[in-house]
Backbone:
């Protein structure tokens, strides 16, 4: 499909090339020839493809459930203007903008994205994107290792468990040791432990996430900030819910030298996990260590302002095994979507979304906390997620909510054995008062049943 | 008049447009954040512009008009397989129950998504002769890293930690050595022989007890089939190493030959090349990593598993008689490599493309890709050097070295002159072993007429280079900006807009 060749074209072209058949062109030595018949899904006409995928879609029953899922992927309102702009073929079907003269539009959009990331994080430099929040954290760790030459990394246990697991995978590759900072009873990073750990000066970096995996604001206090700085440890801020950047103190304001995270919340669909958008920002000091594409502003031969990929000496196609990273293809189109989202919403719109999240999540928290047998586990300030102690195995409660058409949240026992009775619940601006009421009623029923022991 | 002033596609940077309070209302405000959070948790200011929706729509529409994609014209960017991106694929990815499915949705409520991933995985296994694929990695380089982590763990478990060297031919893509370094491997670059292939003798000289992995692309980045692949694989295996297949060039052999049959133990695919996923100006991609049977247990987590479903309709399609789950419990796994399970929306696109073709259709796709490349090769060699002049696969490499000597016109200049004539330029200065290289990959979705137009344009450029080289050295003249001052971009990095003119 999608090949325009007529039999006549093929015959003429074969004659020009001087071979007899298409098979002659693709023949390989017998020793490595195709060993078996291929077993693929059957070919379908386009109408059949649509039917097949509609069939798949119907089997995703959970897509229409009332949902309180978050934990690194967030449902937010996306203005239709985003898709109508981002899906323009000029953007969608272009490659990495190597030929700047015919890529000025995309290059400018990336430069704008880099600027948005800087303005949101308070830092100086941002790249064009990396794969997602987890790999952004891994890349930031590698930057830190290159900066101070230390071969150990430190991460708070309140950082998204998926991110920590990915970081562990990358650290295994680099033979870097990864240690974790414990979490206090209030659901934030144990800052006393942090101070003690960094004091030895053996860690390349320390990573904290705010809002953290439990939804709590989690940044180092003044004492922890000075301990980090005094020990020469690179301070990394992780942001999994980018909408929070609209209202929370910037990572730069609490001393982060690198801010990384997930940009999915800026207009990118949840799409069962991807593609998403890893963002990275840092200080001027680390400019030459940042991985990935960077767009810079310059002039053309006639003195006109123009944009171009720059500082490429950091990258794999120039530096090969000495590159700052192996990344080549990134998440440019997701960054374009995010840029359009931020341009559409602007300061006012983004603040509206953030405050709606604050409000809805407090309504959710109040509703759940009013139930007998349910309690909010932490009382730290939070953004749009809360941890609810349901007093019995969370998995069991979630299963029964599921039976009532509700995805109640994430079973924290999956990642923290000591939190087996806790559910992470999320509310965004898309969570309605009706959703919260339905959850309240369903939880009431579910918790009324005595727990199985 | 400057180009910008005369250009109706120009739009000033978004930060210099708009006025506070001009924005549209998209969601209801929740009120002042101070009502919800202590003041010390809040940021002082949010310095973003407020724009009207019309201004934003115009801004990005104008930017799109300053961007060249496949939808505008021929895109012969070697190694990137810039083929037509079918619209039905996007439409399928946009089905609400696929687009809006949350990654933490319990498996039993996400069966359609898991079925898509499973069908894609099984199809890739058969097409490329691998025991299993992980759909986790986001792009080719990410998959290389994943595969090398697998190799590292495999050797560690076998007590062969001394295997610390990764061998790459000098035609290899930059990501290959860069990925090896990220897994702590030493990189050994192997010189290609006079035929542009890996020399079996030279390879045998460097194989040893330290050999971990030999990474190869086949056909290689010169577009040439490594015809000694069988011996190469045997030699690497005899030395105790693993063979890695960089699948960036899979469009050359899909459905006709399989890396698995060539002896590769590990491989990746760039679904954003071979399987029509739009590249979107740099990404997102999708880079499944495939493994032979002895490496399955090392795959990253999670992995999609299927089993027969009780009470299924016996007349249903095979995968409709199964149920699926995400398996996180692989004791020897290298671990997860990304936040969530895969670039799922792209898995949808790739599977839709496989459905559109079936096994026979995909085999035909690569045959026609090879036909188009050879047709261009024999037509281009009339007026440009083609240093490895034999039947190529999906792409070929030409060189402007003679032309440069004769006229001063370089590969870069030819590239810029093509832009003026409405074509995207080929990949230039890669692979590194050909001086003044132009790596040309037409793909199968281009018609003979388009190829003929391209040949005519390139022929005209080369002839103009000989008669009036200044004309080509001045290109491009018809694009929205002329050649850029890249030195200035690197020496005085300006990587973002500032609210106030920088004082430095
Ligand atoms: C031969 C080859 N290998 C590897 C890669 C890297 O793939 P990706 O850009 O998807 O990371 C590319 C892509 O340009 C390539 O052409």
Residues:
């Amino acid at each position: 499909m999608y090949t325009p060749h007529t039999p006549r074209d093929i015959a003429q072209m074969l004659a020009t090339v001087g071979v007899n058949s298409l098979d002659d062109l693709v023949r390989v030595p017998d020793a490595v020839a195709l060993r078996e018949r291929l077993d693929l899904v059957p070919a379908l006409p386009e109408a059949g493809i649509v039917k097949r995928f509609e069939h798949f879609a119907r089997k995703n029953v959970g897509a229409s459930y009332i949902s309180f899922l978050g934990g690194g992927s967030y449902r937010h309102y996306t203005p239709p203007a985003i898709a109508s702009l981002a899906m323009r073929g000029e953007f969608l079907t272009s490659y990495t903008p190597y030929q700047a003269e015919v890529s000025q539009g995309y290059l400018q959009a990336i430069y704008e994205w880099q600027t948005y990331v800087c303005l949101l994080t308070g830092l100086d430099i941002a790249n064009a994107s990396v794969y997602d929040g987890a790999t952004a954290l891994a890349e930031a760790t590698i930057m830190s290792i290159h900066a101070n030459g230390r071969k150990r990394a430190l991460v708070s246990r309140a950082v998204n468990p998926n991110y920590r697991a990915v970081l562990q995978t990358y650290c295994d590759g680099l033979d870097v040791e990864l240690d974790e900072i414990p979490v206090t009873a209030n659901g934030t990073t144990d800052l006393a432990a942090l101070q003690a750990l960094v004091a030895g000066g053996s860690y390349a970096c320390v990573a904290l996430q705010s809002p953290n995996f439990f939804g709590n604001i989690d940044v180092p206090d003044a004492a922890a900030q000075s301990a980090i700085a005094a020990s020469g440890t690179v301070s990394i801020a992780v942001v999994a819910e980018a909408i929070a950047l609209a209202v929370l103190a910037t990572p730069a304001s609490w001393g982060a030298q690198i801010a990384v995270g997930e940009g999915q919340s800026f207009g990118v669909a949840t799409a069962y996990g991807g593609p998403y958008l890893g963002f990275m920002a840092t200080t001027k000091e680390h400019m030459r260590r940042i991985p990935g594409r960077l767009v810079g502003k310059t002039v053309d031969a006639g003195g006109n302002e123009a944009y171009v990929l720059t500082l490429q000496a950091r990258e794999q196609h120039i530096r090969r095994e000495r590159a700052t990273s192996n990344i080549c293809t990134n998440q440019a189109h997701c960054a374009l979507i995010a840029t359009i989202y931020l341009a559409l919403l602007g300061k006012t719109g983004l603040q509206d979304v953030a405050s709606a999240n604050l409000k809805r999540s407090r309504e959710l928290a109040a509703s759940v906390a009013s139930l007998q047998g349910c309690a909010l586990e932490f009382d730290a300030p939070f953004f749009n997620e809360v941890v609810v102690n349901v007093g019995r195995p969370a998995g069991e409660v979630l299963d029964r909510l599921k039976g009532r058409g509700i995805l109640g949240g994430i079973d924290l026992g999956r990642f923290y054995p000591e939190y087996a009775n806790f559910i992470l619940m999320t509310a965004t601006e898309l969570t309605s008062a009706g959703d919260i009421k339905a959850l309240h009623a369903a939880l009431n029923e579910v918790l009324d049943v005595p727990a199985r022991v | 008049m400057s180009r910008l002033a005369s250009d109706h596609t120009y739009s000033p940077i978004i930060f210099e447009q708009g006025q506070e309070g001009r924005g549209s209302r998209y969601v209801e405000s929740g009120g002042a954040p101070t009502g919800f959070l202590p003041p010390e948790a809040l940021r002082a200011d949010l310095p973003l512009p407020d724009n009207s929706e019309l201004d934003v729509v115009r801004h990005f529409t104008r930017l799109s008009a300053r961007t060249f994609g496949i939808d505008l014209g021929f895109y012969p960017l070697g190694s990137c397989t810039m083929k037509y991106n079918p619209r039905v694929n996007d439409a399928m990815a946009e089905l609400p129950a696929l687009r809006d499915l949350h990654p933490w949705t319990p498996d039993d409520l996400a069966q359609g998504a898991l079925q898509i991933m499973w069908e894609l995985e099984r199809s890739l296994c058969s097409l490329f002769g691998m025991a299993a694929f992980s759909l986790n990695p986001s792009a080719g380089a990410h998959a290389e890293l994943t595969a090398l982590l697998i190799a590292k763990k495999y050797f560690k478990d076998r007590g062969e930690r001394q295997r610390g060297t990764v061998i790459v031919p000098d035609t290899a893509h930059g990501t290959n050595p860069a990925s090896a370094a990220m897994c702590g491997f030493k990189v050994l670059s192997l010189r290609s022989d006079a035929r542009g292939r890996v020399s079996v003798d030279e390879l045998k000289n460097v194989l040893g007890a330290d050999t971990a992995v030999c990474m190869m692309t086949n056909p290689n980045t010169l577009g040439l089939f490594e015809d000694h692949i069988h011996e190469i694989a045997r030699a690497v295996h005899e030395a105790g190493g693993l063979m890695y297949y960089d699948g960036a060039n899979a469009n050359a052999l899909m459905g006709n030959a399989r890396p698995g049959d060539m002896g590769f133990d590990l491989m990746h695919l760039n679904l954003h090349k071979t399987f029509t996923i739009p590249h979107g100006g740099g990404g997102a991609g999708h880079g499944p990593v495939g493994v032979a049977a002895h490496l399955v247990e090392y795959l990253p987590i999670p992995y999609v598993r299927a089993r027969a479903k009780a009470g299924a309709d016996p007349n249903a399609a095979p995968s409709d008689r199964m149920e699926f789950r995400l398996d996180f419990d692989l004791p020897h796994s290298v671990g997860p490599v990304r936040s969530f399970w895969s670039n799922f929306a792209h898995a949808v696109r790739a599977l839709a493309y496989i459905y559109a073709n079936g096994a026979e259709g995909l085999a035909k796709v690569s045959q026609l890709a090879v036909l188009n490349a050879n047709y261009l090769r024999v037509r281009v060699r009339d007026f440009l050097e083609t240093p490895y002049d034999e039947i190529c696969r999906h792409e070929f490499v030409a060189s402007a070295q003679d032309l440069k000597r004769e006229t001063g016109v370089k590969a870069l200049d030819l590239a810029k002159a093509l832009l003026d004539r409405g074509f995207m330029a080929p990949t230039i200065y890669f692979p590194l072993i050909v001086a003044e290289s132009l790596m040309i990959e037409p793909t199968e979705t281009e018609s003979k007429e388009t190829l003929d137009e391209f040949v005519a344009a390139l022929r005209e450029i080369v002839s103009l280079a000989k008669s009036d080289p200044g004309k080509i050295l001045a290109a491009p003249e018809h694009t929205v900006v002329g050649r850029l001052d890249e030195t200035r971009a690197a020496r005085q990095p300006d990587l973002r807009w500032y609210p106030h003119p920088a004082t430095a």
Remarks:
- Residues 1-42 of chain B form one domain.
- The radius of gyration of chain B is 26 Å.
- The mean pLDDT of chain B is 96.
- Chain B touches chain A through 214 residues (CB under 8 Å).
